[in-house]
Each structure stands twice: as structure tokens, then as C-alpha cells.
Amino acid sequence: MAELQTLQYDTEDMYPSRLYAKPVSIPRQDPVVYSKATDHAPLTAAQIAEYEKKGFLFLDDIFTQYELDEMISEMHRMREDSSIKQREESITEQESGAVRSIFSLHTLSDVFAKLAQDPRLVAIAEYLLGERVYIHQSRLNYKPGFSGKEFYWHSDFETWHTEDGMPRMRALSMSIALTKNESQNGPLMLIPGSHKRYVSCVGATPKNHYLFSLKKQEFGVPDEQSLTQMVREGGIETATGPLGRITLFDCNTMHGSNGNITPYPRSNLFFVFNGLSNRVVEPFSSTETRPEYISARDSIKPLETVIFN
Amino acid sequence: MAELQTLQYDTEDMYPSRLYAKPVSIPRQDPVVYSKATDHAPLTAAQIAEYEKKGFLFLDDIFTQYELDEMISEMHRMREDSSIKQREESITEQESGAVRSIFSLHTLSDVFAKLAQDPRLVAIAEYLLGERVYIHQSRLNYKPGFSGKEFYWHSDFETWHTEDGMPRMRALSMSIALTKNESQNGPLMLIPGSHKRYVSCVGATPKNHYLFSLKKQEFGVPDEQSLTQMVREGGIETATGPLGRITLFDCNTMHGSNGNITPYPRSNLFFVFNGLSNRVVEPFSSTETRPEYISARDSIKPLETVIFN
């Protein structure tokens, strides 16, 4: 695999955004599933076809109850740890001050460092991305009861491309539910098929955008007409389901979530696997890079490979 | 029925709120269903029992498609009518400026004036409240797509009592869905059984509270502990359902809704029927009354009776 590690996409901007005065819709230039069907796969053919078509897939019964208990108690420990709350990796709610996200989980916690390298997860990421992978970003998302705020529709790739310099669509996310996700407590919503089109957003990236975009995104926001068209074609699917469910989704799948006034909090772990050839270059539409804990750049380490041996 | 029209509750404050430094839970002092089971009823015994127990009831197939079409086109006409948009009865979204509510529908529109007096609706209100009724408030609620804001949990009665001077729990609301209400577009959520307890809220009513409370409520807000307890006991039910569904609910049933980032708008008509003996007196915890279009006071007219003849 030595040769794979040296390959890297060039810096041509295949997905320009935040550059034009009007929204532009660009067809996806990259595969969704990079491995061949004949390769040994950690998913069924039906699952792979569903992922390719919709841009996401739900996986249940991956973890044992013991593993889930360990993740949940580690989540609680971290949220209550005042030394972690004070770190820049912790993002708090604009109004209530409660912890909303903790970034770079895999460097702050041994439990989550081990989870990020779990062969069951790495094998899926390697298969779909067709090469060795590394963690581009990881975080804990906590949507508290009563005051959980919405996350407006977005493609993660749009931000990773413009602000972090991720060249191509060769990354995926795994969101692991640490609470039951119900229709009422602001679950993730995804637009099936939206990953096959890139919505080029309007408006230049302001300086230090990440400091407020993690609370409320105002740039890199897709236009209503494009969203309406995508929903008309694909509908909306909601990631409601049991504790422990993995929502696996492509980097360009349009997603978002409503707020949460119910007493039920909602939390999940979030790992972004990126192909090693797709490691970040200079940002495509920003004058500065984001911090290492939001976007790995200097600390890139390929995960122990499962498939590519 | 002449004697009923002259009866009126006295001005003792049975449900103090916004007076204490801590939240207080007060048991309901009033019946939920005022008529006797032996009276001729426009609902089945099972429906009445469900309403008594949960504090709400869903009614489908009341209106014909023709009637619904007429309501929808009247809604669109009113929302686009610039003379109505400029009236004080129109409430706009804090951020987007879009029309969120139009109050006093039954005085601004012949179509909705007729609907407010519809014998099918009046008969249900008269039966449950056990006397002649009038419209305390009516409005059109429009939750736009993409930017629909949440309505936090509240008991309508808490506001009608403290700010309008409604003496007792002898009022009910009918919400008529003019769009399909889905789990994703911010549907009404209700807490079954919450109508049997009154949560006395903390914080005095500020002057001209109604001018901003209709956009974002900051007083008369129930505490999280009381809400958690109510949800633990009764759960949460969501008023998802077909266009034309009536959600009938007691004035003290705790309800609210999450925001709506989907492209699907959500709209409904809202009529509050109050028992004639329960007409408003001086506000119980406010130094001023709210305008006539929010709370009928001088313009009270009993609706043509269906049952009490």
C-alpha cells in the first residue's frame, strides 16, 4: 500500500463555491462507491446499492450493549469534565451555554480513539472509499432537551472543500446514536439522492468563520430553490432509530435537523473518514485554514488497514 | 338559556401565576367535560372519555374536500392581501418578516366567520363546556418552510388567565390543519394528561408583553422540572395527520412545536371557544388588558346555539 500513501489529488477546484453571485448546481464528478463490486465487501450488495443511490445507509446491531454502555459513560464523563469544557474543542450553545459539541474526540479520549480505529468501521470506510483512510474530523454532538437548536441544511463537503481544502468527494461520515433518536427530539434528516449534485453556495467566507459557523451557519448555506428541487425528487428521510444505530453518509449528502423542545436530549458520535489520497490541500475559498481539531492537516495518520493488506 | 348568559364566575384567582418566586403545581379545580354523560352528545362515549383523560382528541373527516379547498384559498388570499399584512392582527416572523399569524380571522373574513359558527364545531364546544359559547380568539397560524420557528411549551390558559382575565378552565381550542402535518415540519406536540395540573409560572408580566410574546414567549413559561415530570407521566403525542384534521384540546393542555427547516410549510386555523359564564374579567396578573383582536372582551357574542335550545 506504500504507493497509495503518496498519491494525492491535485489542487484543481472541481467544486467551486462561495465564488458566484447566484447558486449553481454542479453534477458530482466523483464515484460514490470506489471499490469494485468484485472486491471483498464488509456490506451486502443491497446495502452498497442503497448507499450508492441514496447517499446514506443505516446500520444496526454493530455494537454490543457493553460497548454502548462504555461509550455513553465516556460521553457523560467528558461533558462534565470542566477541563474539557474550557478547551477550544468544546462548542457551547449560543443562548444557554450548554456543551453542544466536543471536537477531536479521538485525541481527547482513549475510549473514542479506540472506537475510531475499530476494524468494523474502518473496513466499511476503506471499502466505500477504495483506499486507506484517516480521521478528518471527529466530534460528540449533544442536542440538549428543551433548548436544542436546529442545524440548517448543508453538505459537509461544501465546507470541507471551501474552508479546509478537501479536494474531492472521497470522504464519508459515521454518526453513532448514543440516545434513541425519535421523530420529536430533532433527529437528523437527510435528502436521498442529494449527494449526486453539488450546490455551489453564494457569499464569500468571512474571516474566522468557524468560530460562529459551528453555532449558526450563515455562509455555505444552500439556496431554497435547490433544496426544494432536491426534496421534490428524493423526499426527506429521518434517522430515527435505536441507540447504537450508525448513520453512514456520504460527504456531500444534504442533511440538517430541527430544534428540540422536548425533555429528551439527543446525542451522537461523529467520525469523518477521508481517503488518504484526498487529504486536504489549501482551502479552495478561504484565506485561512481551520484549526487542527476541526480539520486534520498536520496530524494525519492513516488508520490501521483492514481491507488493504 | 337566558339565565346562563347572565351567570358569570367571580373574580377569585383560582390559578395564580407569575406571582411566586418558584414554580408551583396546582391541581385543576374545574371539570374537563361539563355536560353529563346522559346529555345528547355530538361525540362518542369513547371520544369523550379520551378527551377527558388526555386533554385532547383528533377528529378526522369532518369537512368535505370542497370546504377544505375554500378554506385554503381563503388562507392564501389573506396572506397575500397587503392591506391585511399591514394590520395589527398580522404577526410576522422575527427574522424573515413572513406572516406567521393572522388574528381575529372570524372578523376579517366571511369564510372564516361562517366556519366559526359551523354547527358541527359549535355543538362539540357546547357539549364539552356545558353551556353557550363564544369565540375568545381566532387565528391563522402559518409556519413557513425553511425558517419556521419553534413555539415553546405552554398552557394557553396560563396566558388567558393572567393576561386576559379568563377566570376558569372552561374553554377549548380547535386547530384545523390546512396542510398535511408530518413529523418533520414542526407539528403540534401535546402532553397527555397535562391539563389536569396547572403550572404556576415564575416572573411578572412585563408591559405590552403581547407585542413580543407572540413572536417569542419569555414569561408564562413553564419550568423544565414540571415539564419533565408531565412527560414522564404522559409522554408526548404529535398531531401528525391529514389535511382537514381537527385537533381539539383543552385550554390547559401543555403543548408546543419544534421549528421547521423542511421546504414544507405548515398551516392551521385556530378557534378558541369559551363558555359564556367564563367570559373575561380583569387580568389576574397584568396591569393592562390585551387588544380586542387577541382576547374578545367588548365584542363578545354568543354563537348560535346548537345543543342548548
TrEMBL record, chains A, B:
Reactions it catalyzes: L-ectoine + 2-oxoglutarate + O2 = 5-hydroxyectoine + succinate + CO2
Family to which the UniProt record says this protein belongs: Belongs to the PhyH family. EctD subfamily.
KW Oxidoreductase (keyword) present: yes
Entries under InterPro entries matching the protein: EctD, Phytyl_CoA_dOase-like
Cofactor(s) the record lists: Fe(2+)
Pfam family, one: PhyH
Domain of life: Bacteria
Enzyme Commission code: 1.14.11.55
Gene3D superfamilies per the UniProt record, alphabetical: q2cbj1_9rhob like domain
Class of enzymatic activity (EC top level): oxidoreductase
Name under which the protein is recorded: Ectoine hydroxylase
This protein's UniProt keywords: Dioxygenase, Iron, Metal-binding, Oxidoreductase
Function description: Involved in the biosynthesis of 5-hydroxyectoine, called compatible solute, which helps organisms to survive extreme osmotic stress by acting as a highly soluble organic osmolyte. Catalyzes the 2-oxoglutarate-dependent selective hydroxylation of L-ectoine to yield (4S,5S)-5-hydroxyectoine.
Quaternary organization: Homodimer.
Molecular function via GO: 2-oxoglutarate-dependent dioxygenase activity; iron ion binding
